[in-house]
Automatic annotation (TrEMBL):
This is 3-isopropylmalate dehydratase small subunit. Its EC number is 4.2.1.33. Pathway: Amino-acid biosynthesis; L-leucine biosynthesis; L-leucine from 3-methyl-2-oxobutanoate: step 2/4. Belongs to the LeuD family. LeuD type 1 subfamily. GO terms for molecular function: 3-isopropylmalate dehydratase activity. One of its GO terms (biological process) is L-leucine biosynthetic process. GO terms for cellular component: 3-isopropylmalate dehydratase complex. Keywords: Amino-acid biosynthesis, Branched-chain amino acid biosynthesis, Leucine biosynthesis, Lyase. The keyword Amino-acid biosynthesis applies. InterPro entries: 3-IsopropMal_deHydase_ssu, Aconitase/3IPM_dehydase_swvl, AconitaseA/IPMdHydase_ssu_swvl, IPMI_Swivel, LeuD.
Length: 195
């Protein structure tokens, strides 16, 4: 997993609340057997509307999604995070996230940032007024900066450390590869092994 320290990018204002994972990536897209190509399904039902924000050319290439309250509720599908990442998003800012979505995001390197509703609305307004304006999300300082605005955000120390180090569950396990190998040599040859 790529380490996350600081990210600066343009933002997409998604003025919708209660966005569940089925709206992020509809179930029809889950039939794929590979882990790639989910960006095509991101908000696919909403993208049929030409006025939907992701269809607006001024937001092409934006890497920060600024959404309403309760983003990522519903099912535990990891595909929602994959779709957002593969589309190009590195950060989602919202007043509140679904717990499972937030947990999936941090394990895959997508940073969910919780900010107060009024701050989120201010960031959305700024992105609408000037789509070229950039936002910086600084995980080391736990701070979001946009122009003259600088606001702190909370993230637990363990999750912050994992993201800064770029460690997913496999990466954490591989840090103990020598211990695992030593353990395997001490086990009875009649027991199952891993490889």
């Amino acid at each position: 997993m790529e380490a996350f320290t600081t990210h600066t990018g343009r933002a997409v204002p998604l003025r919708r609340s209660n966005v569940d994972t089925d709206q992020i990536i509809p179930a029809v897209w889950l039939k794929q057997v590979s882990r790639t190509g989910f960006e095509k399904g991101l908000f696919s039902a909403w993208r049929e509307d030409p006025a939907f924000v992701l269809n607006q050319p001024q937001y092409d290439g934006a890497t920060i999604l600024v959404a309403g309250t309760d983003f990522g509720t519903g099912s535990s599908r990891e595909h929602a995070v994959w779709a957002l990442q593969q589309y190009g998003f590195r950060v989602v800012i919202a007043p509140r996230f679904g717990d499972i979505f937030r947990n999936n995001s941090t394990k895959m390197g997508l940073l969910p940032v919780v900010l107060p509703t009024e701050t989120v609305e201010e960031l959305q307004s700024r992105a609408e007024q000037d789509p070229t304006a950039e936002i910086t999300v600084d995980l080391e300082r736990r701070e979001v900066r946009a122009g003259d605005l600088a606001v702190p955000f909370e993230i637990d120390d363990y999750t912050r450390w994992r993201l800064l180090e770029g460690l997913d569950d496999i990466g954490l396990t591989l840090r103990h590869a020598d211990d695992i190998a030593e353990f395997e040599t001490s086990r009875s040859p009649l027991l199952p092994t891993t490889s």
